[in-house]
Write a structure and sequence with these properties.
Blueprint (H helix, E strand, L loop, with lengths): L6 H8 L4 E5 L2 H14 L3 E5 L12 E7 L7 H6 L1 E10 L12
Length: 102
């Protein structure tokens, strides 16, 4: 979810996972496609705005979310997991944000 340029998606694919990467930014997905091709791995890249109604992504054994958290959509995220699936989230608190430079 919100895969950006696909760093985590490509790493998972390199380990043998079947991966779907979703992001709303076509420029980032272009970079992700180039990087996955250079790494010799296949990832299904989907352009979708996660703040809008979601297309049918299917269901997954694992959902990875890094630096993206929309608590209001958590039921939708959970619905994308198979029973007993794994959700891995890395999110940060406002207190962990580095101070603004200036």
């Amino acid at each position: 979810m919100a895969c950006g340029i696909g760093r985590h998606s490509i790493a998972a694919a390199t380990l043998g996972a079947t991966v779907v990467g979703v992001d709303r930014d076509p420029a980032r997905l272009t970079v992700a496609r180039r990087m996955s091709a250079a790494a010799g791995v296949s990832v299904s890249w989907i352009e979708a705005d996660l703040e809008q109604p979601w297309p049918d992504f299917g269901v997954f054994d694992v959902v990875l979310m890094f630096n993206y958290l929309d608590r209001t959509r958590m039921p939708d995220v959970i619905d994308r997991l198979v029973p007993g699936g794994l959700l891995i989230i890395e999110a940060f608190l406002e207190a962990q944000r580095p101070p603004a430079l200036g």
